Amino acid sequence: MATMSPRRVELIDAAARLFSERGYHGTSMQHLGEALGMQRGSLYAHIGAKEDLLYDVVADGAGRFLARGEAAMALPATASEKLTRLLIDHVTTATDHLAASTVFLNEWRYLSPEHRDEIQTKRDRYEEIVRLIVAKGIDTGEFRPDADVRFAATLFLSAANWVYTWYRPEGELAPEEIGRRFADLIVKGLAP
Amino acid sequence: MATMSPRRVELIDAAARLFSERGYHGTSMQHLGEALGMQRGSLYAHIGAKEDLLYDVVADGAGRFLARGEAAMALPATASEKLTRLLIDHVTTATDHLAASTVFLNEWRYLSPEHRDEIQTKRDRYEEIVRLIVAKGIDTGEFRPDADVRFAATLFLSAANWVYTWYRPEGELAPEEIGRRFADLIVKGLAP
DNA sequence: CCTACCGATCGGTAGG
DNA sequence: CCTACCGATCGGTAGG
Question: Which residues contact A29 (CB under 8 A, 6 or more apart)?
Answer without folding.
Answer: A40, A43, A50
